[in-house]
């Protein structure tokens, strides 16, 4: 079996890359460890930047996103018991973000791939990448009891943080930067109307809380919890009771509670691998970097990696130019590090760090007070939140 680009992983990076390459006439096969239903069952990100929306349009799968997605022009910061609106659009010459769940985007991409008759191996076992440091890379895997070898020109490692691609790089060839936070996010999804039209990011002495949403009838809420906490310890009632303690009076009046559709704890981590290219293998999305979720950059960074990488492949096949592929790692990392900085800063300002004590809490509140009073500081938040521009080269 042979293809031009073998894509490992059918998360948003792999599916989006596959669709963009297909549109450009570049043959690709995706190999995914999990089943399609499992991939669709993972509840993750919910906010798309303009850069991501543009790419989804370019991939030809934007119709439902535009019909059902909710355009947001601001966010609210809650601290010291008061809410303050950050007018993202006014501060960024009209830029906006879109509320559209990763699950929905994944579903649209899976459907488009199926409609185009493209090959995806789901539930593949023992996926291994070979020969990427030479001219003849290949991927081996098992599927429905049969062993397969896929020969290819390039391997795209879109297999997430725990994937096989980064793990297959010799240790001396890669540098990893990491910060692990001492807490996680407990998320709850419910078919209840959102508590507010816009997202509320709350800094409280009891810890961070986020009121997000997936639609006008579906809400997503998060609570900062210690890493030692277990999801089994959190009944729905306990979740709602704790959320109430972290919200203001008006939000408490409007909060509609209900049964959870999903509840899970995600640890928070900052991580970057350098470089993102190893001969004929490229890393994209969570395979190469992780941000803590505050500010919703994870999925959007995956999309900007894919924008640069797909451009590199398109230049290679249509113009016989290696320039885009040669520049991929450096271009992608320039944007990644800025998003890492923003996510780390927003996380540091909004979460409760017990070891920082009451002084730390006051520093955060002073920074937040400055942020909402200063046009310059609000603009810095807004321009990062809506997404920094892509670099031409
Ligand atoms: P993934 O979505 O991880 O996809 C990688 C795919 O590769 C998976 O389908 C995996 O099964 C497959 N794979 C792994 N190993 C192999 C292998 N050996 N062989 C074949 N396939 C393999 N971001 C936000 O912006 N907001 C959020 O609220 C948010 N919440 C998150 C919650 C969790 C629990 C996690 C893990 C991430 C969250 N993120 C969030 C981050 C965001 O979801 C990711 O940045 C995004 O999914 C990255 O997409 P990806 O395709 O690069 O990686
Ligand atoms: C969501 C997650 C985020 O990390 C964020 O900053 C905003 C929204 C969400 O899952 O809806």
UniProtKB/TrEMBL annotation:
<dbReference type="Pfam" id="PF01494">
    <property type="entry name" value="FAD_binding_3"/>
</dbReference>
<dbReference type="GO" id="GO:0071949">
    <property type="term" value="F:FAD binding"/>
</dbReference>
<protein>
    <submittedName>
        <fullName>4-hydroxybenzoate 3-monooxygenase</fullName>
        <ecNumber>1.14.13.2</ecNumber>
    </submittedName>
</protein>
<dbReference type="InterPro" id="IPR002938">
    <property type="entry name" value="FAD-bd"/>
</dbReference>
<feature type="domain" description="FAD-binding">
    <location>
        <begin position="2"/>
        <end position="343"/>
    </location>
</feature>
<dbReference type="InterPro" id="IPR036188">
    <property type="entry name" value="FAD/NAD-bd_sf"/>
</dbReference>
<dbReference type="GO" id="GO:0018659">
    <property type="term" value="F:4-hydroxybenzoate 3-monooxygenase activity"/>
</dbReference>
<dbReference type="InterPro" id="IPR050641">
    <property type="entry name" value="RIFMO-like"/>
</dbReference>
<keyword id="KW-0274">FAD</keyword>
<keyword id="KW-0503">Monooxygenase</keyword>
<dbReference type="InterPro" id="IPR012733">
    <property type="entry name" value="HB_mOase"/>
</dbReference>
<keyword id="KW-0560">Oxidoreductase</keyword>
<dbReference type="GO" id="GO:0043639">
    <property type="term" value="P:benzoate catabolic process"/>
</dbReference>
<keyword id="KW-0285">Flavoprotein</keyword>
């Amino acid at each position: 079996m042979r293809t031009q680009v073998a894509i490992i992983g059918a998360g948003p990076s792999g599916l989006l890359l596959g669709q963009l390459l297909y549109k450009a006439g570049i043959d690709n096969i995706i190999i995914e460890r999990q089943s399609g239903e499992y991939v669709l069952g993972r509840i993750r990100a919910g906010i798309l930047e303009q850069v991501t929306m543009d790419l989804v349009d370019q991939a030809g799968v934007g119709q439902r996103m535009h019909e059902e997605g909710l355009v947001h022009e601001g966010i609210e910061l809650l601290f010291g018991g008061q809410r303050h609106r950050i007018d993202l659009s006014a501060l960024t010459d009209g830029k906006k973000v879109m509320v559209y769940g990763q699950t929905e985007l994944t579903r649209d991409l899976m459907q488009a791939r199926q409609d185009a008759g493209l090959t995806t191996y789901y539930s593949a076992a023992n996926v291994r990448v070979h020969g990427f440091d030479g001219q003849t890379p290949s991927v081996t895997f098992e599927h429905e009891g049969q062993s397969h070898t896929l020969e290819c020109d390039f391997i795209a490692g879109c297999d997430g943080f725990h994937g096989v691609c980064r793990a297959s790089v010799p240790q001396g060839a890669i540098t990893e930067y990491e910060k692990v936070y001492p807490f996680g996010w407990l998320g709850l999804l419910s078919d209840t109307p959102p508590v507010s039209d816009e997202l509320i990011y709350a800094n409280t002495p009891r810890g961070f809380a986020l009121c997000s949403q997936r639609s006008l009838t579906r809400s997503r809420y998060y609570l900062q919890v210690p890493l030692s906490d277990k999801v089994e310890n959190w009944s729905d009632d306990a979740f709602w009771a704790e959320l109430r303690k972290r919200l203001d009076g008006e939000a408490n009046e409007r909060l509609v509670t209900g049964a959870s559709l999903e509840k899970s704890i995600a640890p928070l981590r900052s991580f970057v691998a350098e470089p993102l290219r190893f001969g004929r293998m490229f890393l994209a999305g969570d395979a190469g970097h992780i941000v803590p979720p505050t500010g919703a950059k994870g999925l959007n960074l995956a999309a900007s990696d894919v924008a640069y990488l797909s451009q590199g492949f398109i230049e290679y096949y249509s113009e016989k130019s290696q320039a885009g592929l040669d520049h991929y790692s450096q271009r992608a990392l320039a944007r990644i590090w800025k998003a890492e900085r923003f996510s780390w800063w927003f996380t540091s300002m909004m979460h409760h760090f017990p070891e920082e004590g009451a002084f730390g809490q006051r520093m955060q509140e002073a920074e937040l007070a400055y942020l909402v009073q200063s046009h310059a500081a609000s603009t810095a938040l807004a321009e990062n939140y809506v997404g920094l521009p892509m670099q031409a080269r």
